Structures are given as C-alpha cells and as structure tokens.
Amino acid sequence: MSETYDFLFKFLVIGNAGTGKSCLLHQFIEKRFKDDSNHTIGVEFGSKIISVVNKFVKLQIWDTAGQERFRQSDGGAFRGGSDSSPDCMSVTRSYYRGAAGALLVYDITSRETYNALTNWLTDARMLASQNIVIILCGNKKDLDADREVTFLEASRFAQENELMFLETSALTGENVEEAFVQCARKILNKIESGELDPERMGSGIQYGDAALRQLRSPRRAQAESVQDCGC
Ligand code: GDP
Ligand code: MG
Predict the structure, then answer these.
(1) CA 229 to CA 210: how far, in whole Å?
(2) Model pLDDT for residues 59-94, shown as the tens digit of each residue
(3) Candidates 12, 19, 23: which one to mutate for ligand 1, based on the most atoms within 8 Å of Cβ?
(4) Degrees (nearest 5) of the Cα angle 13, 17, 18?
(5) Which ligand 1 atom minimizes the distance to the CA of 17?
(6) Crossing angle for the helix pair 176-193 and 21-30, nearest 10 degrees?
(7) Considering the entire predicted model, what is its pTM?
(8) Which of 37, 50, 82, 202 could form a disulfide with 98 if both were Cys (CB 3.0 to 4.6 A apart)?
(9) From ligand 2's centre to the CA of 23, what distance in Å?
C-alpha cells in the first residue's frame, strides 16, 4: 500500500506488564505471534495504514517497552512512590501526550491485571486527553480454561466507563485487527460529527497527504477553470 493516507492517529497500548501488549502490537503489524525467544529489540513503536469506512488512516502506535513494570508497584501509574520523580513524570507525560486512541489491555486469566484498569484509565484521561478514545481488550482469549475475569463483568466495566470492549488473542490473532479498527472508526466518527477537532493542539490527529490534497483541490480546480477560460 502506498504511503498516502487521509489521517494519522497517535495510539497507545497500556495496561499491566505481561498482559500481551507487545504481542498485540506485533500481531497487528506483522500478522503473526511474537516468539518469546525474540527478546532482541522490543517493538517500541509500530505504524500501519488501515482502511476505515472510505478513509485511509495511518496508526502510529507507541508501546511502553517494559517501563510499565515500574509503575505497577504504585497501583498502575506514575503516582506517588519512587516513580514520581520529575524525570519519570516527564517521560510519562510525553508518552501519553496527544494520543487520540488507546488499547487498554488486561489478561483474562489474571484478576490482578483487571483490578489495575481503573488506575490506567485515570492516567490516560488525565495525561492524554479527556477525549481519548479507548478500547478495552481482554487479551489471552485462547486461555479460556484459566479465565479469572468473565466477559460479562468486563463488558459492564466497559459500559460504566464509556469504553469499547473486545476479548482478543494475540496468539491466534482473533479480534486484534478489529480492536485497532474499531478504535480508529470511533475517532473518525467523532471527527465527522465535529466532536473532535483535528486542528486542536494535542488532538493526536494529523491530516495526511490525501486529505490535504482534497482540502486544496477546490482552489486548484477553480484556478484551472480560470486558466481554461477562453475569454
Ligand atoms: P507485555 O508485557 O504486556 O508487553 O506482554 P507481552 O506481549 O510481552 O506478553 C507477555 C506474555 O504473554 C508472553 O509470554 C506472551 O507470549 C504471552 N501472550 C501474549 N499474548 C498472548 C495471548 O493472546 N495468548 C497467550 N496464550 N499468551 C499470550
Ligand atoms: Mg511489552
């Protein structure tokens, strides 16, 4: 696919360590499960162009690259404890800043990761934006026999907190693409309804070449019609 797109959205993948965030990103970008033996360079960043409705959207996705391990001891985020140093805070702020969307991930086989969701949510809304569009992902859906969190319980939590919700498996690939696409579709809807303004600073949205060409084309068409005029 060419590099032409209508919009670029900044996305985050957040949640406790071990929930499968890096694997979800890898599955989305590479369409295969990330092998555990491949520890060389953690994917810290990925981008992919997807087609949503009638638009091409480039997702620029940031992964935490393991720093979330330090945050968890404080209950999910950089609040209090040894991690509230100014350096840590500024790294966290720049990670969250201007994100348009996020995948908030827990592991369906670990209640602990589910219990941490409220803290992650507070951080995302406080440090990214009140308007950030979040999809809750109950990952490791393939491990149903070891499940500690029911689908119903998590869908109620999602409803109460105005989140979209899917159970995913980075292992089989089930619902992985859907999670990113649903989140992007909701952002597009909000742009179209005027609820989100791509030109607002920190919206996490940029126009791509295709959208800019469309914006410019009425003027170009006008100029051309003037040139073509034989009078
Ligand atoms: P992160 O710390 O949130 O980035 O988690 P990782 O992506 O590193 O995954 C943590 C562990 O969970 C690894 O051992 C993965 O192989 C495993 N894992 C990740 N996603 C899945 C999944 O969907 N199903 C299963 N069965 N294991 C998974
Ligand atoms: Mg990771």
Answers:
(1) 28
(2) 999 987 666 665 555 544 444 344 455 566 666 777
(3) 23
(4) 105
(5) 2
(6) 80
(7) 0.85
(8) 202
(9) 7
